[in-house]
Every structure is written in structure tokens, then in C-alpha cells.
Amino acid sequence: MGTHTGPILEGRGDSDYERYVRVPELLELQKPVAELAHPEERLFQTTHQAAELWLHHVDYEIGRAIELIAADDVALAAELLDRCARIINLLRQQIVILETMAPADYHVIRTSSLGRGSGQESPGFAKLLDVGKRVWPVFEAVLGRRSLTVIEIERKPREHAEMFRLVQAMLDYDEAFLNWRYSHMRLAFRVIGSKVMSLKNVPAAQLEQGTREPLFPELWETISTLTGEFKPSY
């Protein structure tokens, strides 16, 4: 009598991999080929579906990082923020793949399949816009418990190595998020131009404003303060 080697997990699929990842269910979320408005629509939908999964995960990791900062485990919090920054960088690399789509092909999709949908309605993106408001209060609280200020950390990064690492991780995440927003803006300009209204009647050029709005402005301002203390002259 041979050893059973088939899947042991509950669910659909011929292997435990398929059942755990839920491959059949995932693939069913894609529009059937026969219903695509244009062959390029598969790329467009896949890109945004994958992005929503990653954005949802970043939101999850940010929640974990906040709890760790509140518990004074700033080292692990910094590691999670670094992970989040890497995911955002992945999303930035992913979104530019859409630049391989001809604008004329996108407009077929835009006018046939998207209804009134807009990337500005992304629930994952909306959650990440509030990361600064969510992280900053617990960060200020840990500064208070350690009787520190950001400028003191920046002045003596080796003396406050653990907190400096957390500050760096916050800046890394902030920078990654800004870069992603910039890449999204350039994609919009590349595909629909800068003078067109979105499906929500928002000028595409308005996307540029978001590329100049950091999540942690106080951290960036402190770097300028530090530079001023050295009284550089050029």
C-alpha cells in the first residue's frame, strides 16, 4: 500500500500550495479573457489587484510597528518599517510596467471597463495616507519616555543608535512613499497627459501636490535645523 502524497489541506486545488495560496479563487478574480475590452486590460487589472494586496499588507505591518513603538521595542519596529519601504519600492517598480501600454490602448480600457473608477479611490492607498498621523503620536510618546528630542538624536546618532535607526526607518518609508507617488504621477502624465481630468474630475496635474507632502515633515525639518547648526557657507 503506497504512501498518500496528495494534498492534506482543505480547499480547492490539486496541491497544498494551491489550496494554501488559494490560487483558484485568486485567478477567478480576474476578468475572463473573452470579456476583456482590450488585450492590455489583463496587465492593467493584474497590476492593480496585486497592488491592493501589497497595500493591505503594508497597512498590517504599520499596525504592528505602531504597537512595537508603543511597547518601546523600537528596533523591531524599525525592521518592519524597512520591510514596508521595500514593499513600497516594489510597488513603484511594478507600476512603471504600465508605461509599456500604449496610451491609445489604455483609453479603450478607460472608456469601456472602468466606469467611474479612479486610482484615487484605492482603499489601500487611502489607508497609507494616514500613516504619519498614526505613527507620529506613538513616536512622540517614546521620545518623551526617553527624554529625547529628534534634534538630539540627529546631533548624536551613535549615542542614540536605536532611536536613530528608527528615525532613519521612518525617513526611508516616507521617501519610498513619496517616490511611489511621483512614479504614479509620471505614469499618469505618460498615459493620459497632464492636462486631462481624471474620472473623478480631478486634474492629473494635481497629483504633483502629493509628491511634495511628506508623512513626517518634522523629521525632514530637523535635518535642515541640524545643517543650520553647522553654519555652512557655500
Describe the structure.
By secondary structure, the protein is mainly α. The chain has a single domain, classed as Up-down Bundle (Methane Monooxygenase Hydroxylase, Chain G, domain 1), CATH 1.20.58. It is 64% helix and 0% strand. The chain contains eleven helices and no strands. The chain has helices at residues 16-21, 23-28, 41-70, 74-95, 103-112, 123-128, 131-145, 150-155, 161-191, 207-210, 217-229. The longest helix has 31 residues, at 161-191. The protein is flat, with a radius of gyration of 22 Å. The N and C termini lie far apart (83 Å). 17% of the residues are buried. The mean pLDDT is 92.
List the helices and strands and how they pair.
Elements: H1 16-21, H2 23-28, H3 41-70, H4 74-95, H5 103-112, H6 123-128, H7 131-145, H8 150-155, H9 161-191, H10 207-210, H11 217-229
Helix pairs in contact: 3-4, 3-7, 4-9
